[in-house]
Design goal:
The structure is a single chain. With 216 residues, this protein is mainly beta. The protein is built from one helix and 13 strands, in the order E-E-E-E-H-E-E-E-E-E-E-E-E-E. Among the domains are: 81 residues, Immunoglobulin-like (Sandwich), CATH 2.60.40; 42 residues, no CATH class. It is elongated, with a radius of gyration of 40 Å.
Length: 216
C-alpha cells in the first residue's frame, strides 16, 4: 500500500464500466482473494459472476480495481479479455457442423445442407446453389452411367453399291463393284450389335452425418 509493494494475500474487488471515469457499471462487482508478490498479482474474473460476451459489444470497457474500499483506478480492456468475445461471438452467418439433432444457442439449422456435400464456390458460381437430390438418412447411393443405343441395341450404317456387285467376303459384308450396263443403285446395311446397355457403377464415399448450423 502507498509506495510499499504488497506481499501476501489480498482481497480485491473488480468491476467493469463503459467509460474511463464515471459512466455505467456493466459488470460486477466481484470479490476475489489473490496473493500479491512485490505488488503484482493475477486474477481470474467471472468465476462467481460470469462475464457475458454481449457486455463487450458496445465498445470500450474499463476494469476498475478496489482494495479495502479504496479505488486503485480503471484500466482499459486489452486484446486478451476481448478474446472472450471472439471465441464465443463468431461472425453472423458462419456455418459449422455439430453432433446431435439440435443446434447450440444462437445457432439455427442450415436446412439447405440436409443430405448434401459442401464444395467451395467456383469462380462466377452461385453461392448456396444446390444440385441433385439430397441423400436420405444413411443412404448408400450408387451412381450409374448408362450408354444406350437409340434403336434397340443396333447401330446402322448404309452403304450404296452397284447391282451385280461381287462379294469378296459375304460374312464380313465386303464388296467390290463391276462396271456393267443397266446398273441400278441398291442398299446394303451393315449392322453392329451392342448390348442393350452398358452400366458403370461405384460405391458412394464413406461419410458421417452431422448437423449443419448457421450462426444467427
Amino acid at each position: 500500500m502507498g509506495s510499499v509493494p504488497v506481499n501476501g494475500p489480498v482481497v480485491l474487488e473488480f468491476a467493469l464500466y463503459d467509460a474511463p471515469t464515471l459512466g455505467t457499471q456493466i459488470w460486477g462487482p466481484e470479490t476475489i482473494s489473490v496473493t500479491a508478490a512485490a505488488g503484482t498479482f493475477s486474477a481470474m474474473l467471472g468465476q462467481t459472476d460470469p462475464l457475458d460476451p454481449a457486455m463487450l459489444s458496445g465498445g470500450d470497457a474499463y476494469l476498475e480495481v478496489s482494495i479495502g474500499g479504496s479505488v486503485l483506478g480503471r484500466t482499459r480492456f486489452g486484446s486478451a479479455p476481448y478474446s472472450l468475445r471472439s471465441a464465443n461471438g463468431v461472425p453472423s452467418g458462419m456455418i459449422a457442423f455439430f453432433p446431435g439433432t439440435s443446434c447450440p444457442p444462437d445457432w439455427s439449422e442450415y436446412s439447405p445442407g440436409r443430405g448434401r456435400y459442401f464444395v467451395g464456390l467456383p469462380s462466377s458460381g452461385n453461392a448456396e446453389a444446390t444440385v441433385g437430390t439430397a441423400l436420405a438418412g444413411q443412404e448408400n447411393r450408387t451412381q450409374q452411367i448408362s450408354h444406350r443405343p437409340s434403336s434397340g441395341g443396333v447401330l446402322g450404317a448404309t452403304l450404296r453399291i452397284s447391282a451385280n456387285a461381287t462379294p469378296v467376303d459375304g460374312a464380313n459384308g465386303r464388296f467390290i463393284n463391276r462396271v456393267e450396263t443397266g446398273l441400278q443403285a441398291v442398299s446394303y446395311i451393315h449392322t453392329h450389335n451392342l448390348p442393350n446397355s452398358q452400366l458403370a457403377s461405384a460405391e458412394v464415399a464413406p461419410f458421417v452425418q452431422l448437423l449443419a448450423c448457421q450462426r444467427l
